[in-house]
Design a protein that fits this description.
Layout (H helix, E strand, L loop, with lengths): L7 E5 L4 H12 L3 E6 L2 H13 L3 E6 L5 H15 L4 E3 L16 H28 L10
Parallel strand pairs: 1-2, 1-4, 2-3
Length: 142
């Protein structure tokens, strides 16, 4: 029996790299994997690959820095799959490699939005569903 059968997992930044490897591993363990990214072509290709290998995988376009996209993604996931058990906040970017004095505020803000705000937004919208599904953390505060 697959260890994650019946679990619904949402992974961000998963069209390639580490996120794609996580999606594959979790799908092969029987989870229903919903994975989001901005790289739509790679995401759809990975979805097709995972499904052809017997995985239950679903790609969604997701800009993790946008609150409305998080809310819509989580609501759609729960509506389509019945629950949500696990969130993997994998999405992350780096600032272009330039001397600090040549960096822009826009680049800095984008990095903070993807690497920090997205974690807050993801946990904000996913935790209530995880609790209803009987999983996740019981802690009310950190």
């Amino acid at each position: 029996m697959k260890r994650l059968a019946g679990k619904v997992i949402l992974i961000t930044g998963a069209a390639q790299g580490l996120g794609a490897a996580q999606a594959k591993a979790l799908a092969m363990e029987g989870a229903c994997v919903v994975f989001g990214d901005l790289a739509d072509a790679q995401g759809r290709a990975l979805e097709g690959q995972l499904r052809s290998e017997g995985g239950d995988a679903h790609y969604v376009h997701l800009d993790v820095s946008k609150e409305k996209e998080w809310r819509d993604c989580v609501e759609d996931t729960v509506r389509k799959h019945g629950n949500l058990n696990v969130l993997v906040n994998n999405a992350g970017i780096v600032i272009k490699k330039v001397p600090i004095e040549e960096g822009t505020v826009e680049d800095w803000d984008r990095v903070m939005a993807v690497n920090l705000r997205s974690v807050f937004l993801g946990t904000k919208y996913v935790i209530p569903h995880m609790r209803r599904a009987g999983g996740g953390s019981d802690r009310k505060s950190v």
